[in-house]
Design goal:
Blueprint: E1 24-25, E2 37-44, E3 55-60, E4 68-70, E5 73-74, H1 98-115, H2 124-133, H3 137-143, E6 157-161, H4 167-175, E7 178-183, H5 186-194, E8 199-201, E9 214-220, H6 229-239, E10 240-251, H7 256-261, E11 275-276, H8 279-289, E12 292-299, H9 303-316, H10 325-344, E13 351-357
Parallel strand pairs: 6-7, 6-9, 7-8, 9-10
Antiparallel strand pairs: 1-5, 2-3, 3-4, 4-11, 10-13, 12-13
């Protein structure tokens, strides 16, 4: 692999620029299916990181697609201006309460007996605690993340695109994968490297990986930030080995939360979220990129946090304030309700989970599964 080019991220670029001068381009048609777009929301503000400006979101007029996108959209060379105060790749250290300590031990215990994750560091009491807590399905869903996406897959070479500070990458490495990561944020890269991880400052284009370099590719909440998502999917497919698995997580435009909160829904996040997918749009884009065995499911894993932030935005127009006790209790109930709704309507969850594979020329042709 040539890593000499991994110094500049193609999507964000470098240089600060002037915040009041963000150049945009009109986007009249859907990037997923080519249909015309129609206005959905207008005049949205960035209440998370306070990038100046008013932002509009369009929706695909093809009911079988339903993609949402920023319109007008930031030009590639301007996108870095939307991230000048972005801080999601930092590690936050807080004093651990007794309840948090018990929960952490239950997570560790469940993961040790269910997935064989660091069993030598977990006591029998922790495993029993984890087994008891995991009786609650929504809690078990949280405890299983991110293991469930690669459960039963042979642990070989994995690349995480947009690995941030390396939390998930560290879990995969400790689980037995030979891992490598990429991120645009130099501070995040330094943070991940401090954990002993192999992480590059760059992306799949600038790093120029050879074809078939990885047996698994993982990208959590990256695709919505990319101006040309199909190109990213095609490059991911190129460097994926035949028979390998690609897992991509991204917000679900068809979620219950979006239908309830509308323009206050946390998943919109203008101007950083450039495309917000429905299950149909994401599945179609993955197939167009060349993936086989395409499966798109939804998850209620993020329902509680999305509810809290969306409700705060709707009530006060900001998210910096500490959530009240009653809001947290409401979020717990929302999480359980969202889990049940996902059982009734598989497309209602807050998060899309795309799984796709690369054709193995030595095996019989595989067929795509419906989204």
């Amino acid at each position: 692999m040539n890593v000499s080019g991994c110094r500049e991220y193609w999507f964000y670029g470098e240089g600060v620029g002037m915040l009041h001068n963000i150049n945009t381009r009109d986007c009249p048609v859907c990037d997923a299916c080519g249909a015309e777009g129609e206005p959905l929301y207008a005049g949205l503000e960035d209440v998370l990181y306070h990038v100046p400006g008013k932002w509009n979101i369009s929706k695909c007029t093809d009911s079988s697609c339903g993609l949402l996108w920023l319109d007008p959209m930031l030009k590639k060379e301007e996108i870095h201006k939307a991230y000048l105060s972005y801080s999601t790749h930092q590690d936050f250290i807080r004093k651990e309460s007794l309840s948090a300590r018990i929960l952490r031990k239950s997570y560790a215990g469940y993961r040790a007996y269910r997935y064989g994750f660091n069993p030598s560091n977990v006591s029998l009491c922790d495993k029993l605690l984890g087994m008891m807590v995991s009786v609650l399905p929504p809690t078990r869903q949280q405890m299983s993340f991110p293991f469930t996406h690669f459960d039963g897959v042979r642990k070989t070479r994995m690349l995480e695109i947009g690995c941030g500070g390396g939390d998930s990458l560290k879990i995969f490495a400790d689980w037995g994968w030979k891992t490598e990561g990429l991120d645009f944020d130099q501070a995040a890269v330094a943070n991940a490297r401090a954990k002993g991880l192999k992480v590059w400052h760059g992306d799949v284009f600038s790093c120029k990986y050879e074809a078939n370099s990885f047996d698994a590719i993982y990208a959590s909440h990256v695709l919505e930030h990319v101006p040309e998502p199909e190109k990213l999917l095609k490059e991911s497919l190129r460097i994926l080995s035949p028979g390998g698995r690609c897992v991509i997580l991204t917000p679900n435009a068809a979620s219950v939360g979006h239908r309830w909160f509308k323009s206050f829904w946390r998943g919109l996040e203008p101007p950083r979220h450039l495309h917000i997918f429905t299950p149909e749009a994401l599945a179609g884009l993955a197939r167009s990129a060349g993936f086989i065995d395409v499966s798109v499911k939804t998850s209620s894993r993020l329902a509680a946090s999305i509810y809290i932030e969306s409700e705060m935005m709707r009530k006060s127009g900001k998210t910096e304030a500490k959530a009240s006790f009653m809001l947290k209790i409401g979020a717990m109930l929302v999480h359980y309700v969202a889990y049940v709704l996902c059982l009734v309507n598989a497309k209602s969850g807050e998060e899309l989970v795309l799984m796709g594979s690369k054709r193995n020329d030595n095996s019989p042709s595989a067929h795509n599964r419906d989204a």
